[in-house]
Amino acid sequence: MEREGEYQLLIESIALSFRGIKALHDVSIKVKKGAIFSIIGPNGAGKTCVLNSINRFYKVNRGDIVFEGHELTKLPCHMIARLGIARTFQGTELFHGLTVLDNIKLGAHVKLRTGILSALTYLGKAHLEEMQLRKEVEETIVDLLEIESIRKKVVGTLPYGLQKRVELGRALAMHPKLLLLDEPMAGMNLEETEDMARFILDVNEEWGTTIVLIEHDMGVVMDVSDTICVLDFGVKIAEGTPKEIRENPKVVSAYLGEEEVSYSRLGA
Q: Which one of 25, 47, 55, 77 is separated from 86 by 20 to 30 angstroms, measured CA to CA?
């Protein structure tokens, strides 16, 4: 029998609407620590709304979102980040005039302890903390994501696939307990997609990071996920293992409009 304590993230009956239009309706999700939990569904199903509700970019109309005992619906965004929740976005939200290293280091700002005076003058503790952070980024994240050769390049000069990799690096600089990934493979070619899937698995396995993933590439979802949740028009219609989801007629119907069809779009 499963116990509530087994879950790192608990989403209970959340509802979200915009001017009377329901984006989410009584959605409940339980994510175990160390799992890769994927959320899939057709366009407009409410997938990103779930992540935005966790981060409190959106304020839910009702329901609870609890992370390691903390009720997130009552916290501001910066406090949620301090709890160890990081995310990436559908598009790249980077500082295009800064280098790869500088962009990644910005992700660690919630961990820095330097006082404002030291930070402004860049002396003493601020300088030491900056050097330690740079070493940590170069020895862990840059190495993990295989971006040593571009670490000093300006982000705006890089191809889109590498920018997505840098954005993942910035999220990892927080050393998150929970990583929210919103379509990390969007716009990538096959080789870039395979690389990103490998990095996600490495972060999960080597760092023990819990991952909530939104992705349209069903082949990737089926390969990397422990559990998959399916949304359709803001309602959860299924949840289970990749095999269970692939064979669920409600899921096939939601994606393809009828049940008597090929399962190819669901990663079979």
A: 25
